[in-house]
Amino acid sequence: MSSLKEICSGLPLDPLPVNRGRDPDVPHAPLRTPNLTAEEERLALRNALRYFPPSHHPTLAPEFAQELRQYGHIYMYRFCPALRMRAYPIDQYPCRTPQAASIMLMIMNNLDPEVAQFPQELVTYGGNGQVFGNWAQFCLVMHYLSEMTEEQTLVMYSGHPMGLFPSLPSSPRAIITNGMVIPNYSSRNQYEKMFALGVSMYGQMTAGSYCYIGPQGIVHGTMLTVLNAGRRYLGSDDLRGRVFVTSGLGGMSGAQAKAAVIAGCVGVIAEVDEAPLRKRYEQGWLMEITSSLDHCIKRIREAKISKTPLSIGYHGNIVDLWERLLLEYERTGELLVDLGSDQTSLHNPYNGGYYPVQLSFRQANQLMATDSDRFLTVVQESLRRQVKAINKLSDAGLFFWDYGNAFLLEAQRAGAEVEKAGAGATEFRYPSYVQHIMGDIFSLGFGPFRWVCTSGNPQDLAETDDIAANVLEEISSNVTDKIRQQYNDNIRWIREAGKHKMVVGSQARILYSDQKGRVCIALAINQAIAEGRVSAPVVISRDHHDVSGTDSPFRETSNVYDGSAFCADMAVQNFVGDAFRGATWVALHNGGGVGWGEVMNGGFGLLLDGSDEAAKRARLVLNWDVSNGVARRCWSGNSNAYKTIQHTMEENGQLRVTMPFPVQDECVLDRALQG
Q1: Is it the case that residue 643 has pLDDT exceeding 80?
Q2: CA angle at residue 439 from 388 to 184, to 5 degrees?
Q3: Are strands 600-608 and 538-542 parallel, antiparallel or unpaired?
Q4: For the segment 289-310, what is each residue's pLDDT rounded down to a tens digit?
Q5: Which residues contact 333 (CB under 8 A, 6 or more apart)?
């Protein structure tokens, strides 16, 4: 068993570690099919070997070539450390600055087998959300961080550590970019080749930025989505006896079961892969599992009658579940589902993100690896069947929404009936959850704020929970009813967070807050660290899926209607602005959520250590990090954002935002265009 000191000592070369190969006891990523030419295979191998002295090339070249041909990528399994990956307490990392140690902690949390979807392939979530592209990169990054001073910055190019470069103490300690590909070449096919060559990487959102906190990171957002869907579609806060049907129990989608129960409804989640199904059940995130549709329908009926919150994991295909629910409706006239969505990884539909109903899990993996063209055809047939069943249930009263996973986009590409007459480029028959449910929340400045207690001590997390709840209760007394409802949802969430046992991996918490709430919570936690009430520094961060962090026309910016939904200035400006305002590290990604080439997004991490300097940085970063997106949404014509940024300017005399003048008389446009 290696130690943290050994992991941080650089690439182990003398001697080389034993090649233990792939661990059969952990889940592994689907085989990749980059379809490299002979010359491209040679280039991929050459690129991988440049991490090592030539004396090791005769040993490493054959095994790297085998990995490339067998798995479609060179992961360098030989260099996967024997040490258990997890978020060790910050004071255990051998380094020169706590800022570097905080990044090390977050990286190792992303690779914790309890957290990561495919830990040996360095995939945290989403089927292909990489932390790094290979284990040599991990070893080098940990070594650089252990050697770093506060006058150096680690520069990361798509998983590759370019090195430590001189900088200022006020500079970020790490600058991360993932998938920064020239736009005309940012296609899925090109990506598969680039990743196989080791020159680019898909970091999802918080995988490649080292800010993932396990499925809890999406539980709260999912709970809020379900609650607000009930308010909008069902006209009620009370979801007892209501049924929410969806799919996926992986790294992100695994949150759905827990969120449904917290919201008070019956959650039925289909999952074709038994490994994540069992994982969520053993973690207590899923109450029941069954592979029988008959039993599933029986339990739905019983829970509807008893109005008992329940989560059921159906081990099977979501298409079978939708078609069975339709059959029950056609037989009995009883609609057994009220709310519906989908969280299969359709950003990656042909490489393990979506499993077609016509094939078993094993058959699908085999066809995926041997006949990618045929697999594409089968996936599209399955999507058409899924949409057909959903459409009929929708006609009967089901309320369905796209969960930002490119479901409707890929269904449209497959020829399914999801078109909306007279709609814009980002609109379909069903809304995205941003368009109908969460978009207004973003425009108010609310989004997924999170923190990690680097001590690893649950008592520190409980203390910060209490701090956050007290802060929100104090500032919620003088706000509008619309904002107070959001605060109350989050106060309820944070007060009950401990009993729901949501920690997987690091001692972390998430809640949705607006600009004022985030700043006040961060400053209060920083003060608690200074006073010793919290025993060690705390990392603050957020999901990239936020007010300002992501430009994604089919998700985060799908409710932007001024023609700028496909523009990425906001996410890029956010990344740059966080960097020079004091973030400890920043990241900018191509892809994430909806998929490669479909979105630009960024995030940050900031270490609170109890100092006045940390408080200054937190205030600057968090104010900018929210106001940037609210200002953009205001300029696009969103009335909530207009009021929010106007109020923010009144509170901060240094903030001056260009405000839009709306066209009040449409006849002015008619006359001008007719003339």
Answers
A1: yes
A2: 75
A3: antiparallel
A4: 999 999 999 999 999 999 999 9
A5: none
